[in-house]
């Protein structure tokens, strides 16, 4: 949701493909030109799914793409060799059955960079450092709030028919953010709801200036119409920006309507 267009002066662009050479395919014969195009297209689809879903198993990817276990494994091996993905042990909630948990695959930071508009990170970071030196933390907070204001207005307009129920508004907000290029989705969980953003165009900048994340969370609170809790951010090193919407929270108030809670540290 962090508006890269506001920081860079450019509108968000469609997610480009992560580059892949046919020669990188592990264990695959030398393809024809048409075969190389097909392989690259499939890897682009794998990349897009990982961008949208975050950590995903090979079985889940294969099912979503209609690929056999051997085929999806071949693509993932190639992406591992190219440094586009990393494999991690799947986190299992509650009691775990016998055997080792399945591996999940996550895009690397280098792959994420190629999927977004990070070209102006250095300039944006330098500008924020200058603002911090000249005006202090309050000036940075004011700048961050102003940068997300236009996006808030567009999302509010897109949510006009969402009603007043917070979880329904979160679902509508996810659709509005996805239309803006942020690969968002909303889900219902036992304790309320979750809004997940799988892409952050300015993660590198927000890593140094968390005021951007705080301004974004305040916007989510106002648009959903209730108190929310930010559980994780891509800027902090998490795979997904996750915002929790409690089941029966208080209405959002001016001043400090958001709470940041770390669950992975």
TrEMBL record:
SUPFAM superfamilies: Winged helix' DNA-binding domain (SSF46785). CDD domains: HTH_ARSR. It comes from the Bacteria. Residues 245-265 are annotated as: Disordered. InterPro entries: ArsR-like_HTH (IPR011991), Carb_Metab_HTH_regulators (IPR050313), WH-like_DNA-bd_sf (IPR036388), WH_DNA-bd_sf (IPR036390). PANTHER family: HTH-TYPE TRANSCRIPTIONAL REGULATOR SRLR-RELATED, TRANSCRIPTIONAL REGULATORY PROTEIN-RELATED. This is Putative ArsR family transcriptional regulator (Putative iron-sulfur cluster regulator SufR). It comes from Micromonospora lupini str. Lupac 08. The lineage of its organism: Bacteria, Bacillati, Actinomycetota, Actinomycetes, Micromonosporales.
């Amino acid at each position: 949701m962090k508006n890269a267009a506001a920081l860079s002066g450019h509108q968000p662009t469609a997610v480009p493909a992560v580059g892949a050479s046919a020669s990188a395919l592990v264990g695959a014969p030398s393809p024809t030109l048409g075969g190389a195009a097909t392989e690259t297209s499939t890897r682009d689809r794998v990349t897009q799914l990982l961008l949208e879903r975050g950590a995903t198993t090979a079985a889940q990817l294969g099912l979503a793409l209609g690929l056999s276990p051997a085929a999806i494994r071949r693509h993932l091996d190639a992406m591992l060799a190219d440094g586009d993905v990393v494999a991690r042990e799947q986190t299992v909630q509650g009691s775990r059955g016998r055997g080792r948990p399945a591996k999940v695959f996550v895009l690397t930071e280098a792959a994420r960079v190629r999927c977004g508009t990070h070209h102006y990170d250095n300039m944006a970071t330098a500008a924020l450092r200058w603002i911090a030196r000249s005006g202090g933390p309050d000036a940075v907070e004011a700048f961050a709030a102003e940068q997300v204001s236009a996006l808030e207005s567009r999302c509010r307009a897109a949510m006009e028919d969402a009603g007043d129920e917070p979880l329904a508004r979160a679902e509508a907000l996810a659709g509005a953010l996805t239309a803006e290029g942020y690969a968002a989705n909303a889900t219902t969980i036992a304790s309320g709801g979750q809004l997940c953003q799988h892409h952050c165009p300015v993660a590198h900048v927000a890593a140094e200036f968390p005021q951007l994340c705080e301004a974004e969370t305040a916007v989510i609170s106002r648009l959903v119409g209730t108190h929310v809790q930010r559980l994780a951010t891509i800027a902090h090193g998490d795979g997904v920006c996750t915002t929790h919407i409690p089941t029966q929270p208080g209405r959002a108030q001016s001043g400090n309507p958001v709470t940041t809670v770390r669950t992975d540290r």
